[in-house]
């Protein structure tokens, strides 16, 4: 949680139009900058971040160091690409901006995105580096984009001149499938020196690792502890309810209307799939299910049939409940049969397919598929009529569907 | 004669201001990581000849020392080696967060050029009028005796008195080295 004032130097030169970093170098850079700003402001609320551009008409400070993340993100809009990057001037202006920071207790840091070739020679960069070290300013360099002769060497020399006790870092990011931000997340630029932004970095890395993260429910407990807790609680409540519902279905199978149990088990499975409800108790849910079954018997059933098949594949308790409800309800099986009959009706299906663009109903592969579907639906009807709980096969059938 | 008087003045009512330094605010720019300001300022470390404050990127050093109360500064002692010890030392009072870029923006309260005698431990008396009301002291070491890349300082000691009270118990006889 180092108290830090950071100046980010953005390269908005013509070289940033290149698309070797998806979607373009400039966009990848902007994403990385947004991520860094967020990490810095989150690791310590008193941290300040400022942004300047190095190319264009000249070095221009977009926002002086501030802790207002909204202001920083807003200034990134409408940036134009053009000109050539002036690294030395950029770093010097950044140093000046840091010198006039309001809170003198903050450590000074400059983060440079060096995407275009470096015009200055090594000596000049080393002098700049020494000056930064003398004024105890740390420097992080992100070397990406163009890789001409000597650029890496010059940046390494600059880093060596600045570096004081490993407070400064350099990261080389080659073009490739990984986004610039993703590569940076694992570097010391994000993680600070040891701890610091590691909480944010870990959660950002998890989110970046593609949608469903390592965390339960896809929500990071660090980012949103209340939501994560609520989701966990509702998940456990649903599990308990499903078991209770399964027991109830077994007990009251002959007495109650089977659609009720189907709806009751639908309620939890719906919540299970969507994970957005925190139901109060069994009774109110059952009441709701009753009301639902009275009001809209047909349409809701069809919808829930498909949902049921999905849910059944996942949860054995639920599958048992579904099995029983399927057996007991003639209405239910008939509606299912209706659906499968519809599907089996080849003329109906072919008329649908004909309406789809690019599908020729006379195409042999389509015909094959229709035939297989027909077979499947027929076998399913047979099983329904058997009324013997053959859990595994039917589960497989539904999974195949 | 003046020096004899000032030497006796040291013995009479001047105190080592080490006790009044606000350590939380002490800063030093351009110090080398293995050789910090504490080596030159703190009791014990400063007596050790092997422990020096050394400069890093170039030969200049900027030291900021705030005090816990207002003091009057009478004299300072700067000890170092003959070649790499400091030569020109500028003192600024009551200026916070100075940087190397603005040391030349305003005149120092006093400028001291250290002789080899001083580097052995002879105190340098500062201008009386300028140091009557000192909340913080900034010491700018501009160059060293031989002009080498690194300046080494073995000891920095400040002598003076406090403004509010003259603590009779704190009076010590200061030996000259």
TrEMBL record, chain B:
SUPFAM superfamilies: Galactose-binding domain-like (SSF49785). Residues 6-177 form the PITH domain. It holds the Pfam family PITH. GO terms for cellular component: cytoplasm. PANTHER family: AD039 HT014 THIOREDOXIN FAMILY TRP26 (PTHR12175), OS03G0795500 PROTEIN (PTHR12175:SF5). Belongs to the PITHD1 family. This is PITH domain-containing protein. It comes from Hibiscus syriacus (Rose of Sharon).
